[in-house]
Give the backbone structure.
Amino acid sequence: MLKPLHDNVVLKKEKVEQVTKSGIIVTGDVQEEPDYATVVAVGEGKYVDGKLVPLTVKVNDKVVYKKYSTTTVKFDEEEYLVISEKDILAIVE
Amino acid sequence: MLKPLHDNVVLKKEKVEQVTKSGIIVTGDVQEEPDYATVVAVGEGKYVDGKLVPLTVKVNDKVVYKKYSTTTVKFDEEEYLVISEKDILAIVE
Amino acid sequence: MLKPLHDNVVLKKEKVEQVTKSGIIVTGDVQEEPDYATVVAVGEGKYVDGKLVPLTVKVNDKVVYKKYSTTTVKFDEEEYLVISEKDILAIVE
Amino acid sequence: MLKPLHDNVVLKKEKVEQVTKSGIIVTGDVQEEPDYATVVAVGEGKYVDGKLVPLTVKVNDKVVYKKYSTTTVKFDEEEYLVISEKDILAIVE
Amino acid sequence: MLKPLHDNVVLKKEKVEQVTKSGIIVTGDVQEEPDYATVVAVGEGKYVDGKLVPLTVKVNDKVVYKKYSTTTVKFDEEEYLVISEKDILAIVE
Amino acid sequence: MLKPLHDNVVLKKEKVEQVTKSGIIVTGDVQEEPDYATVVAVGEGKYVDGKLVPLTVKVNDKVVYKKYSTTTVKFDEEEYLVISEKDILAIVE
Amino acid sequence: MLKPLHDNVVLKKEKVEQVTKSGIIVTGDVQEEPDYATVVAVGEGKYVDGKLVPLTVKVNDKVVYKKYSTTTVKFDEEEYLVISEKDILAIVE
């Protein structure tokens, strides 16, 4: 298992197909790769002025994040992304 | 639905045509793409010195924003932009 | 109307011709485009240490600003510039 | 022995082969070089507001780190990486 | 007149010829353009920790400044430079 | 003698040959130039919040440092490196 | 005379030839231009937390400085360098 440090978050990319109404549309084009992923692990938070501030996202949240802000890690035959929570933009509800 | 984190804002681009007097003129040229969009969701704000400062823009505000400061997200057959409020320049009234 | 957020200012470019003595000389050359504009709207200011600091420039001020620090916005058949007040260099009196 | 200063950490790269289920899969491709390494020494920490904050990672932790954030050092016929702890993203458990 | 904002300073470039002993030598070469100018107007200063700190340079000071840190403004048939005082390096006495 | 200012440190590069077991292996290849050097002088430290914080490294320490963070100085027929202590990564013991 | 502002320092480059034992060796090669210079004037210091901190270097100190951190100024038939004290690395004693 990957246990993120500080304010890092481990994500697993969604493998979604074209879906309609209340689903997510993803084109197969490389340049339009979706910025959706599911949170699989969160760090313990960040110390701000000597106080631990826990993260906002939780495991299983679907999130939108900034492209090019992730580090790709292969683990147990799966590919994960590690990202700082500040580069997570929104939760998909 | 996209629920923005922190000081992020979700925008939906206006599909406006050429309009006159008290409307908005938009040329169809790609290089002059309008910087107008409508706020569809706002984050809960940003902690400054341990105090949550809510955002200034509200849902349904028409806003002008900095180009190249957005992340494009497709959701439910629609395209949205996510942007930090600091890159929103003005409200169109 | 464009209502600037925070410390942003909305400017309207002067369309000045060659003028002499106590006027402003502007060459028609694109590379020497004037850095003069008139303030048409100002933001409510910026919070510094929890206190709102209002802007220094006022509506109708003619100002000199840093090139390449503006976002161009078309509104109501007119073109405006939005700029942070920190990039306004001087007032023309 | 390499004794890291401040918040630096000395890592030794894993020489792992393709492993399955609860192991780590590493392709032999240079561009997909694994970002796994084992902590072999940690600095004494970083002074924040005059207080020494010890590091989070410990010797023998397997860690994932940001590529291109390391300095390679040869010592005693072995190759080590030195990295600031802020560029260590997660612990592999 | 140009009234600089904040910590900005308006300069007028010296048109000096080759002068000897206690004068200033300027080669006519474009790449060796002099970094001398005369202060013609100064901003009211900068707020540091809520206190207005006035500028150090005064009108009529001859100053040396960092190249490429100025904005050129034409006004009343003359060319001026606007610069932040932090980019003024020395006063010529 | 070179007396470093503030948090700077003067280093002298090791001219080590290939050594085995508990020595240091250095290839003669330019691209693999060793990042080892011996401290020959240290600055008096850095003022943090008005208090002088002395440096951690001492004269005669063998250190590993970030490449490209040094300034080379020739003095008394010898070549030295000057570096800020923050770019020294580890002490070789 | 050049009177440096704030934490700036005026330097005059040494025109040293090849010297041996307790002298300074300088090759004539442009790429190995010496980083030695003599301090000819110092600024009054820098305000840190509202307190004026005077500079460490004094007139007549021989100093080593970071290349590419200087502004060259011609004055009275001589060439000087202006540099911020933070880019002066060491005093040659």
About this structure: The domain at 8-86 of chain D is CATH 2.30.33.40 (10 Kd Chaperonin, Protein Cpn10; Chain O). Chains D and G do not touch (no CB pair under 8 Å). The mean pLDDT of chain D is 82. The first strand of chain D starts at residue 2 and ends at 4.
